[in-house]
Amino acid sequence: MFTAATGRRGATWRTRTTAGLGALVLGGTATLVAATPASAAVQDVDDATFTWGLSGYAQVGIFGAWTFKDLTGTATVLAGSVSGGTQQEYLVDPVPATSFPTSKAGQTPNAVRFTGGTGTADPATGAVDLVWDGSYTVNAYPASFNAPNEVYSDPQLEVAADGSGELSFDFTLGAGTDMSGNPVAETSYGRLTVVTFDEGSIDVTGDGEVRFSPDYQGVTVTTADSAAQTTTCTATGGATGWWGSWAPAFVGAVPASVRPHFYSTGCGGMQDNKPALPVDVAFTVAEDVPAPATPQVQVSTTTLAADGTTDLTVTGTGFTAATDGTAAGIYVAVGPLVGDAWYLSAAPFQHAKYVRTSFAGAETATGAQLAADGSFTVTFQDVAPVYTKGTTTYDAATTPLNVVTFAAQGSPYRGLDTVTPLTFVDADGLPVVVDIPDEVDPEEPGPGEFVWAVDGGTSAVSLGVAQPTAAGFGASGALRTVTVTDTRAGAPAWSLSGQVGDFATADGALTFGGQSLGWSPTLGTNTVGAVAGATVAPGTAATDGLRSSRTLVSAPAGHAAGSVAVDAGLSLLAPLTTEPGSYSTTLVLTALS
């Protein structure tokens, strides 16, 4: 309790004391809860399948369904009922749902399938970036025509979450005879984009199952040495009105003998079978394995009384799987970091408790239980700034003390290390300043006393772990109750105000402004007619928040003799740019009368 009185007649007086506001933990010893966007569901894939029926045109052709042959790598053929097969894995609806011929409605198409695709996929959005090994060969003409084979190798499918993307192959045209009977040499065209995809092309049909609908309608292509593209089809009289093209770069690259298979050269009829059929991709969705918990520690206060009377409660979370070093348990200790290998022994510490899953019963002076979920709670009594272990005396003034955790039994694993610095304050040495000016008030206060005290003395107020919001890192706490008593004759007016400086880490390397702290004063027992100060919100300007002096409580002249208990909720909104660290500031309370 701090008391200030004057023996001089009518003098104005002022008392001031500092009360620790206490270790706002943003990170370091307790990890910063960072503001991060929602994580994507993208996963690595090594078992993707790719299934495609090419086009409706390939299911009928001029001379019958196209022939799939000369398969390499992981490529296989699913023979549909259009060719007398029985596959039921790749199914499509007829025109106008897809380009599958209405004449084959109810039948299943021929399709090529690749397996073992690798890359990434997002089961939620259907976005993929996958590649497969192998090739297939097709030919639209009977063998007697000696038409060049079309060889499609190593498909790569890249589609973004919005549905935009492309399917490419290494494309080779085999040797043969062109439509004029002239010999054609084998030609490799390298990797060509065969079809493209536009926004909205994705249909997630199941868990790890996606269907992609390629572009065609409205895609224009310029053909120099083959039939001109028809772009005037209309949806009248039951017609689809479809006209378009596969990827123009692909259509422009292939020879005139096969080019018309991939763009509109008329309207209706088999022209409606030229668009590419859907591409089906399937992959195993990885089990949603939660990320391993990060060891975090919270300490009830990091500002302690220098007389060694402060008790600490330490809680920890995230000290989980045996693979991370907790199989042997951990030490929770209070003391200095002696040398680079301070974690090899608990002997130098003032207090140390062996916390482990095998511990049974209530907490003791030397041990406590580590819960199955990786949490613990331990207490340390009478933590002092100076102590002796063996023949060595440790003094916080020269060797700072900390609350630490580390893997037990000399484990080399450092993933369980946390360090929370402690500060000691001399309760008897808190500054009390009395300013007595030369001017004398015309009124005489008369006998009585004006005193105020903070419950818990200098024990720090902890705001805990700040959490990210859109506006900044938010945290809250409560000021310890302040009791003001005024029994002076004449009942002069008085006020009690508070102000903070900047928040800083123990080494002063990291700071943020005191304007980030606000309060909401409330009154409890009030027999003196006091009035609570206004709520002050955290701010960003230099004069916002408690960076400027703000009234906590006041009483007007002529108030009743008595006392008032004042509480205040504390609210913090630190900038999102604040670096991880353990921050503290000092709240200065000033009484004026």
From TrEMBL:
Signal among keywords: yes
First and last residue of the signal peptide: 1-40
Species annotation: Cellulomonas oligotrophica
Keywords: Signal
Protein's UniProt name: Htaa domain-containing protein
